Amino acid sequence: MLKEFIYIVLLIVVLTNLNHYFHNILMTIYIFVGILFFYVIYKKIEEVENLKKEIEDSLKENYKSIEYFGFKDFPTEEEFKERYHEMAQKCHPDHGGSTEQMQELNYHKLEVEKHYKYIKTKDKVEQKEEWKTKEDKYPKLLKKIFNNKR
């Protein structure tokens, strides 16, 4: 009987120590997961900051291109095309301009076109989101109409 009692006490001591040991392992895992979580958040914030910087740089380049064409603000596409054609005739090597002038003109044209492409894409995304919300409303409205008639 004494032998069995000693085994039980030893088992309790071992289990208590194991519980303490597992508790330390769990705490280590929690700390590691917490650090990993904050690292991932830090990296995401860093990505967003880099993206913001790229957008700001792109906008600065777009405004430089707009100023190159003599506009103070973004013109309509039609106004821009007219101005580009006017300047292209002056800058073209066959009309007294140089190859360098034409290359610079085309560079700025591409920068402005990037802006218009961005605006069109943004408008399409907003329009799709608007359609999606409308699609969500119509089935509910139809259910209300048909449920009331029954």
How would you explain this protein's 3D organization?
89% of the residues lie in helices and 0% in strands. It has 150 residues and is mainly α. The chain has a domain at 1-66. α1 packs across α3 and α2 runs antiparallel to α3 (99-149). It is elongated, with a radius of gyration of 34 Å. The N and C termini lie far apart (80 Å). The mean pLDDT is 78.
Write the layout of secondary structure elements.
Layout: H1 2-68, H2 77-91, H3 99-149
Mean pLDDT figure: 78
Runs with pLDDT <50, length 5+? none
Order of helices and strands: HHH
Largest sheet: none
The percent range for helix content is over 70%
Helical region count?
A: 3
What amount of the residues lies in strands? Answer: under 5%
Derived from helix and strand composition plus strand pairing, the structural class reads mainly alpha
C-alpha termini separation: 80 Å
- Cα radius of gyration in angstroms: 34 Å
State the total count of DSSP E strands: 0
The dominant shape is elongated
